[in-house]
Amino acid sequence: MSECPYCSTVVPESASVCRGCGAERVKGYVSQQTIKGLAGVGTILGIPTAFFIAYVTHSMPLMVIVLLTMILGPILYLKLKNKEKVSWIRPTAR
Ligand SMILES: [Zn+2]
Q1: How many domains does the chain have?
Q2: How far apart are CA 60 and CA 63, in angstroms?
Q3: pLDDT tens-digit profile of 8-44?
């Protein structure tokens, strides 16, 4: 049993949605804001790095891989890191 952080309703472990307020319990949740922030930083840092890689290696596929890794890598890492972390999402926060 755990308690909903928003309305203090006791939620059974088998349930993933709070009956009191409809908040959802999820594992490995990463907020949209965090994803956008990481994608933004990844793009800013990734583009010059990717151009540098392309300049050095003359390899277009490698440049694309580097760019995608820099943009998506931190997001995937965070998702994996939070995999076992339980978060509550308020229905209004979506
Ligand atoms: Zn609730």
Answers
A1: 1
A2: 5
A3: 999 998 899 999 999 999 888 888 899 999 999 999 9
